[in-house]
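Chain X:
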Amino acid sequence: MFKHRFRCDWDAGKIWKVLFIVWIIFATLYVLYGEYNRLRVYVAGVSYNRGVTAAVNKMMDEASSCQPVPITSGDRGMNIINLDCFTVPEGEASE
């Protein structure tokens, strides 16, 4: 009935070329994925550091007014004040 057989005109050289191209594509994608993840972690770290710096700078600016500055973290809280705002009269300094 059916006398058609699967016929492949490819020789070993062509197969190796195709495998090599597939390997190059896979290796390139693997390296690009690793670099993407490295860049993503770097950007997250830089953003975190900038946020911490901004928060500390804001606290320092608010504390420079010599008024208590309320800070909270979750359910905990406290007031901070700049120690430079406490002046000791010259005659009362203890040694």
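Chain Y:
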Amino acid sequence: MPRDKDGHELIALTFGMESSASLWNVIFEGFDQEVVLVSKFSGSDDRVVNTLYEFGDIIGRNYKDCKVKATRTGIEIKKPFPRNDVSLVNEWTGLMESIRDEMTKFIPDAFEARPGR
């Protein structure tokens, strides 16, 4: 993952999960509850954050089954799934990591300071 001049990732990506299931539901009904996967993309400077906003607009227009919210440092994508399935979570995680890689390619001057370029 490309880094800025201070050694930080240009785009930080974190994951979370939200669910309306209570401990009672999990104990008596199992883990197959509806969940919302949350992916947060954040950047430390304006050029990165602006790139994230642009991608957030594109994702929001083209994918109606997820919600995109702008934050102070980037974007948050929420995607509901009908059940907590490890294979779906892994697939979503891989997709978000690929999107982060694509976004990085569009950050102005992202690769200028890297040696060998």
